[in-house]
Predict the structure.
Amino acid sequence: MLPDRLPLKAKIVLMVNSSGAVKKNDRLSVAVSGGPDSTALLFLLESVKDELGIKLVACHLNHQLRGEESDKDEQFVKELAESLSIPFRAASANLPEYRAQNGGSTQSAARELRYQFFDSLIKSRFADKIAIGHTKDDSAETLLINFLRGTGLSGLTGIPSIREEKIIRPLIEVSKKEILAYLNENKIVFRTDSSNSSDKYLRNQIRNNLLPLLEREYNPALKDSLCRTSVVLSDIDDFISGLGDEALAEVLVSAKKEEVVVDSAKLKSYPKALQREVLRKIVAKVRGSFAARISFDRTEDLGQLLRGERSGELDLPGIKAVLSGERLAVRTSEFPKAQPFSYKFDEDSLIFLEEISASIEVRPAGGDDVDFDKSCRKVFLNGEAIPSDAVIRSRREGDRFYPLGADGSQKLKKFFIDQKLSKWERDSIPLLASGSDILWIPGYRISQTVRLPEQRGKILKLEYRER
């Protein structure tokens, strides 16, 4: 923690440099609401930008919650940036619509929208990093809010000084009292959010009532005490987070855009604390790190699904989860249900499987072309053993498979279960089939009946590709 008597500008320089997140010549965008904290941060960073070697820009998200007052905030910030000759970008958000789709409180939804806005600024290269005006007071309030609501370890770490190497909070060890003194001393004008005086929101109740009471009756330096506690817990949380990264890598089956599938049996073998950490990281993967907020209760819901304490699909705000066999899948939208499909097999063709956005190329091959593909996405089959009625299709009731190397045939359903394939995955797997006999399952195995004989005759090369 920084020495309290260190000058404010020196604190800012030390915090930015010690974070390691901001590099020389970075475009650092200050998120300015127009309130005292963010306004002070803009002026402070503008005064030390040359010393830091950065390029300063500013941004503002209009949540449109207070009508004309919100518009005046945006105009104020725009004029402030212009007066300092700082590039500025603003955007508006439809908060009610976002809440209707994703759930959550007004404040949590507003926070997620802000982080999505920040993410868009970085992706568009308007900014390399974002600076936010959270203070020591905000961090103490956050710790108390989470404690009163009930939370896990990460909820007791306050507000971190840096997030994902993209968000930096240079004022996080600076008190509100210091901020107001700086603004007054430099005669800097700022906006006052009328909603901050209302006790409608829990944060305002804690800021306006609970914290002053606790400081007056129990500990005048309570905010400092809470911040010291949060630093200790943050170090512990970082340690557990590292273990969570390792555990997720061990149980991960697949990670696609907005979908993560893990080995539920292996994940269940971990202690519950590590299970919770992995589940939080899964949510972060599917929703994006800036919008990966998930409450303790929702994490527990996922944990109960994982451990079989509840069955079926889990529908949470912003995410869906399904446990099938030994696979837990989490995604941001409904699980896809592929339509049944069937395509004629041709010995020299490129077959497009529109229903699953994939293709299978079939070409004649010579003996010298044959090689072994462990993934079984590219195979060489005995063309003479493939019946003329062969098709590429989705699974059907009654399908049987004689896997290469097995003692005999079995139901396709049993093979899929043995491969730990989830129900939602099975309809999307193409099959080379003749009647109810399965000859090849791309990505898994070929049938004993179409293996290449010692005396090779007609050889066909089949290759499966996802688009």
